[in-house]
Hints:
The complex is a heterodimer of chains A (312) and B (522). Chain A has 312 residues and is mostly helical. Chain A contains 13 helices and no strands. In chain A, helix 6 packs parallel to helix 9 and helix 10 packs across helix 11. The longest helix of chain A has 38 residues. With 522 residues, chain B is an alpha+beta fold. Chain B is built from 15 helices and 23 strands. A four-stranded mixed β-sheet of chain B has the order 1-10-9-8, covered by helices on one side. A four-stranded antiparallel β-sheet of chain B has the order 4-5-7-6, covered by helices on one side. Chains A and B meet through helix 2, helix 3, helix 6, helix 8 and helix 12 of A and helix 1, helix 6 and helix 12 of B.
Amino acid sequence: MLAYAARRILGLIPVLFAAVVLCFIAIQFVPGDPIMVLLSDQSGDPVLEARLRADYGLDRPLPVQFGSYIAGILQGDFGLSFRFANLPVSQVIGTSLAISPILALTALAIALALGLLLGTFAALRRNTAADTAVIVVLVAGISIPNFAMAAFLVYLFAIKLGVLPVAGWGDPSQLILPVVVLAIPPMAYIARLTRTYMLEVLQQDYIRTARAKGLRERIVIWRHALRNTLVPLLTTVGIIFGGLLSGTFVVETIFNIPGLGRLAIDSIFARDYPVTMAIVLLFTLFYASINLLIDLLYGLIDPRIRLGGGNR
Amino acid sequence: MPDQRRGLWTASALAVALVTASVGAGAETLRTNILADPAMVDPITFSELVAGDILGNVYEGFTAIDENGDVVPALAETWEAHDDNLGFTFHLREGVKFHSGRDFTANDVKYTFEQLLLPGNKAGINAEYLESIVGADKVKAGSATELEGVKVIDDHTLEVRFVKPDVLFPIYSIWFMDSGIAGEHGADWATKASAGTGPFAFEAWNRGQDVKLRAHPDYWGGAPEIDGVDFLIVPSDDTAISMFEAGELDVVYVSSVPEGRRILKDPQFADLLLKVPAAQIQYLGMNQNLYEPFKDPKVREAICITMDRDGMVSGLYGGAAFPLYGQMTPGVAGYNPDLPAIPHDPERAKALMAEAGYPNGEGLPPLKIATTAPNKDTAAYFASTYKTVLGIPVEVETVERATHIKAMNAGEVPFFHWGWSAGYPDALYFLSQVWYGPSVYNRSRWQNDEFDALIEQSQAVPDSAERYALYQQAEHVLLDDWGTCPTTVRMQIAAVRPNVEGVHLTPFRFLPFQDVKIDEAG
């Protein structure tokens, strides 16, 4: 297990490298010039432009720029931000670092808990009015885009009822709406999957066996059936987490949360490439880590899966 | 998993601590919005609007403007021009304290000038105002560190000498900084300390969240009544308006056109709004080198009288604009209020096009009007108007902003609608930057010797009234030649909560918030 984990972590290195290369190439195709953005609308002094270009090393050939960028990263130096005068990238990103993962993980936890409950509830009442009602709500949850949901919830809870703040960060009450907006689509998705898997599992022989043994229905459902629906669900959690991370881009912008998602958008618009590249790397890292975690979790949930061998 | 859970707990503990702290700070803090993080919080690298909105409260120059937009003395009490018109002697205000507690003296002025010019400092736009000082080129090139043309006579007297007359020098918004700050806090002092003399001192910048200022108790103009100002960073005006409605902002400045239209029409806002024209000209650029038919003044006139300025104001901008008939804007010194309105006369325009040899647009080569995504509606209005009324084959081309600006600066855009904001409170800035032949910002490359001579002449006239007459004469030359079509002036819109007093919106955005009073009961 440990050797397996170590191998997977080593395997991250080429993934991260590929992300850097792809991002570096993609940026070259984006129209716009960071120095022109830096100079602002009313400052077109060609002497100043040339000096800034040299200061940031942008007058060198691309392969040289790339080489020195990689060399910098290996020493933990991500360079200077183009947008913030004299600020190193690490300092720009520092305060934002934990926010997107906190949002995504909180939303994921809520989505998983509620999704499992709702899905199981619907499955056990298959083809009843309650089941249909749950399905209708779930379809709505998946179909309503998050920005529309956000606008509606803000109007209702912040402006009309005045119980929650419109936007911002720092107060726990400011966490509620963004997390709800983030959690609704994956919650609906997980609930639908749970319902489907649960219905499938409930037809299995071992469930019949469990019931025949005289186990209480609660134990049959929650211990035997649910545990078996978790395995296929877990596979999708990695994908869902990726979706949540990209969801933070929208939610952080709407709710004015200073996380990596919003910073990424601001940096892309400002052509702040050093910050953009660092954020791409971080998101790749988050995504890869959660997938690694999931692979390790398989073994815990399903004893038949043992990675790395040697245990059987 | 345990690690992540601990992370969550730490985060919520931190959040609780933050809430407690903000409650402890007292409620008499003015909360307003800015569109983005400032790109800098120091007066040397300063080069953008958002930073200016904040730093205008922290730093001061020789002069300031009052609520009418008129220039008033600030850190210089008086000044006199030298007889040869190649310099000024400034008498600085006494008893001015920096936020650090140090006294403001002539040495700080000299220090600031040098910091702006030293090549290692990546100085922003304020450095451009120093170019006419004797020895500025040497400091800029790195061959000298002392600025030869600036002489400290005593603590409160300073002499500045120029290589060519620069009569507007005292009104340039050059912000003076504390020369002792870098010694005390190191080279990266900007985010740790406050180096100004203004009514508010820089306190903290939480990236992505807010910039906090606190009142300067020793401010020479009297300590502000409020405890401080919080500039909340809110990229979306829609969110900012919601926050204002929910009581999370005391003052909201609305920059985007659709949101501006919305609150202008909303009766809830009627009594809360401040509406002031921006100190920003807008114009249609017609580059005669790039589109042959623009060489004919009849074609240029036809274009200028085909557009319906009143229609644009009500339709395109929902009332959030004023028609503009010249290239100086109301509220900026030098503005000519007596300019005649440019008529809206499509019939005459059609006749002019026929006279020029292009009846119904026949024989005209295709033309593109270049714009950026946020300004696409305006460009689309022009394209469709000129296509349907005059038969000019115009298409809209949307370009990324920095690319567009670079192309305009290089004189490579044949047809565009763009603006220019005043960098200091005098209309010369519009004429000398946008329409003067040698200026890099003469983006449509209109060139007229008589105009250029008038601008050069006005730069050496110390008497204001005499100078304004020259601006207006130059403006006439530009308009009589149909060198451009003035279009509209943007209306700045801000909303202020009824319990807040003393917020002044001028053509140059907000004045520093030193007069603000917040009635907590309200």
